[in-house]
Design goal:
Layout: E1 5-11, E2 15-22, E3 27-34, H1 40-53, H2 56-59, E4 62-69, E5 74-77, H3 96-103, H4 118-126, E6 136-139, H5 140-149, E7 154-156, H6 174-177, E8 187-189, E9 194-197, H7 200-206, E10 213-219, H8 220-228, E11 235-240, E12 244-250, E13 262-266, E14 269-276, H9 280-286, H10 289-296, H11 337-361, E15 369-373, H12 380-390, E16 394-396, H13 402-412, H14 423-427
Parallel strand pairs: 1-4, 4-10, 7-8, 11-15, 15-16
Antiparallel strand pairs: 1-2, 2-3, 5-6, 9-10, 11-12, 12-14, 13-14
Bound molecules: adenosine-5'-diphosphate.
Adenosine-5'-diphosphate is lined by residues 241-242, 280-281, 283-284, 289, 292-293, 296, 374-376, 378-379, 382.
Length: 428
């Protein structure tokens, strides 16, 4: 029996990474490639460099590849799939007017209603002089995958959520089909769907098997979620990075625009998410990472600090409290730094618990367990406080790399969480 290998490729905000795994999910090889410019040429070079770095004996075994890109980073291409314009990056906010224009035609609170959404970017492209030559509008992951399979114009429903694609009905909604840009919209597949084998040219150029499949990809944050291994309703992943991001797997779709909550489809389930402005950025404004470690080891996590903080880097909160003028609460500051940090960590833990309560009140499945990613995951005192507030087991996630999640996507295909929901559960 020939062993199989699967390759996941992650295009992040500052560089790209590839991880090859076998059918058991063991890592076989890893590669990194940086780029200083966010240009299509630099991305293509990084893609080929990453695949080239995978040892030849593993490359020979590759049966599928999946790519994740940064959500809403997008390109406009001509009939030959050549970019007509530099890519618009995920945080590019020049499409302000287009977002306002969209507010006239979309349902209230739709995920396309921000200047950085892919649909707002497409409408911005429409006003550029190069537009008449445009044939395809693609996200970063779509375009990179098309370089390998040779069929431009295909996306997945994770990347396309902010393009307006409805993952429930699996179509573009009527209001969107009225727009002049419709001929440029990609065909949208379920993440993990086999698009086709690599082109003969790519197989020869990169020494890949001729039948190596390219699968529809996903976004960076969903790839990281897949990497965690969470796969059942009620399982959640909290990211404790600069901001606090909550993701909860649920049988029910939860959307609440006023809190910035929306859900991605994952097979038969939904991944409901919300992001608070609280998080590690506040901790970093007071303490260096090494100091955080030392102070945290002095905190007695079972006792209450007696402080009632709501840590925010500046006024304004969206989730779990929607108030653009919400004031941070960081006083009184005790003399002792360990006690101050105790209060800060407790404050963020309370926001996390309130966030999961809100997702459940809005209809998500009851919280069963929480995996943790990000800089705050490796803090046993905080983990123990969070376990107390959340009332469910909390653990660091053993895998947080988006490239690993994409490798699992390459291996599993459309059944991306490896979870088959039974008929009985679906009826519940
Ligand atoms: P991002 O990618 O969002 O910038 P990271 O996942 O790299 O963030 O995490 C960085 C954050 O983690 C910083 O804000 C920092 O304050 C916080 N952090 C680092 N070490 C610890 C620790 N031991 N305990 C709690 N928070 C920490």
């Amino acid at each position: 029996l020939t062993p199989h290998a699967f390759l996941g490729i992650d295009f992040g905000t500052s560089g790209a990474r590839a991880i090859a795994i076998n059918s058991n999910g063991d890592t076989l090889a890893e590669a990194r490639s940086g780029y200083t410019d966010q240009t299509a040429v630099a991305w293509r070079a990084a893609l080929f460099d990453l695949i080239g770095q995978i040892p030849a004996d593993i490359r020979r075994l590759l049966s599928a590849i999946a790519i994740n890109g940064t959500s809403t980073t997008a390109l406009l291409c001509d009939a030959e799939n050549r970019p007509l314009y530099p890519p618009l990056l995920y945080n590019d906010a020049r499409a302000q007017d287009e977002a306002k224009q969209l507010a006239q035609i979309t349902p209230p609170g739709h995920p396309v209603l921000s200047a950085s959404s892919s649909l707002a970017k497409l409408l911005w492209f429409q006003k550029q002089p190069e537009f008449p030559c445009a044939r395809f509008f693609l996200h970063q992951a779509d375009w990179l995958a098309s370089l390998l399979h040779g069929r431009p114009g295909i996306s997945d429903y994770h990347n396309s959520l902010k393009l307006g694609f409805d993952p429930e009905t699996l179509r573009y909604p009527e209001w969107l089909l009225q727009l002049e840009v419709v001929p440029l919209l990609p065909r949208v597949l379920a993440p993990g769907t086999a698009i086709g084998p690599v082109t003969a040219e790519i197989a020869a150029h990169l020494s890949l098997p001729r039948n190596c499949l390219i699968r529809a990809g996903t976004t960076d944050s969903i790839a990281a979620f897949i990497a965690s291994g969470a796969c059942r309703p009620g399982q959640a992943v909290t990211s404790l990075g600069s901001t606090l991001v909550l993701k909860l797997l649920s049988r029910k779709r939860v959307d609440a625009a006023q809190y910035g909550i929306y859900s991605h489809r994952i097979g038969n389930l939904w991944l409901a998410g919300g992001a608070s402005n609280s998080g590690g950025a506040v901790l970093r404004s007071f303490f260096s990472d090494p100091r955080l470690k030392v102070l945290s080891s002095r905190i007695p996590p079972e006792t209450d600090s007696g402080l009632d903080y709501y840590p925010l880097p500046c006024p304004g909160e969206r989730f779990p409290i929607n108030d653009p003028e919400f004031e941070p609460r960081l006083t009184p500051r005790p003399q002792e730094d360990a006690l101050f940090l105790h209060g800060l960590l407790e404050g963020i833990a309370r926001i996390e618990a309130q966030g999961y309560r809100l997702l459940q009140e809005l209809g998500a499945d009851p919280l069963e367990s929480v995996l943790t990613a990000g800089g705050g995951a490796d803090n046993p005192a905080w983990t123990s406080m969070r376990t107390r507030f959340l009332g469910v087991p909390v653990q660091p996630s053993s895998q947080v790399e988006a490239a690993f999640g994409s490798a699992l996507l390459a291996a599993r295909g459309e059944n991306l969480l490896c979870y088959e929901q039974s008929q009985a559960e679906r009826k519940n």
